[in-house]
Amino acid sequence: MTPELLESARVLGTALHESQAVQVYLQAKIEVETNPEAASLEAHMLEVYHALLARQQNGEQLTQSEVQEFYALRNQVQYHPLIKARDAALAQVKGVFAEAGTEITNQLGVDFTALALAA
Amino acid sequence: MSTPSTKIDLPILSMTGDAKVVQAAQSLGKLLAETPEYQTFLQALKDINHDLEVQKLSAKIREHDNALQWGRGDVLEHQGEMTTLQAQMESMPLVQTYHAAEQAFIHLCREIDAVISETAGVPFAPNARKSGCGCGG
Questions:
Q1: Which residue of B has its CA nearest to A88?
Q2: A7: distance to nearest CA of chain B, Å?
């Protein structure tokens, strides 16, 4: 990568970092991470999710009550005020990022984000 | 008699945060379009799109694919033909050149994405995707 391109990528990264959407999101993320209740609730949900997924991938049939319990836990997480605020802030970030991605793509004529994520 | 002046709402000229983002993204896109990796990729793409042999093979692959989708003929026979035709196409130097150019450009896009993400403090490409799951990171 040329120094000019590197600098240009950094300028975009800085503009994104300084945007209101990213600042609000980063603050909301810290609030979730530093709130013991929200943090442990989310960690617990992820732990349950991965355990259920692993069992399912091993061919095990999950019971209806296990699935219902997981959905209830997921709802609890999604409706926690701090987590809800963080997720709403992330949705705003995605809007700004998508606009930036589209601008790059428009200059190229090929989808930049798809290429950056290509396997 | 003078014409009554029409009041026009002019846009605010000071650059907002998002306008900075748009301008920075446009500049980056322009620079990226000038790189040898992009130019080589673009040329390789044009070359395969204009190659008659590639066009013929692609048309044949599409015929078998359509037949499979509409349930015409023998499934295994169509699948076998498609595999053979695809292998034939992949073995063409022009197609191999295209794949190499594509990989080089993908590598550059990933590097740029990593720099943007690191500076922004949030992963860029997964969150810039129009649909699907992005991680806040």
A1: B136
A2: 9
The pLDDT tens digits of the residues spanning B84-97 come to 999 999 999 999 99
Subunit contact A115:B25, Cβ cutoff 8 A: no
Q: Which residues of A touch B124 (CB under 8 A)?
A: 13, 16, 97, 100-101, 113, 116
Q: What is the residue range of A61's domain?
A: 3-116
**A106 contacts in B (CB within 8 Å)?**
26, 29
Number of domains composing chain A: 1
Give the DSSP per-residue string, A33-71: HH-HHHHHHHHHHHHHHHHHHHHHHTTPPPPHHHHHHHH
Q: Do B109 and A116 touch (CB under 8 A)?
A: yes
pTM score of the predicted model? 0.79
Domains and their CATH numbers in chain B: 36-126 (1.20.1500.10)
Q: pLDDT tens across B59-75, in order?
A: 999 999 899 889 888 88
* Angle at alpha carbon of residue B130, lines to B126 and B134, rounded to 5°: 30
The model's pLDDT over A73-83, given as tens digits with 9 standing for 90+, comes to: 999 999 999 99
More confident residue, A39 or B136: A39
Contact A62, A55 (CB under 8 A): yes
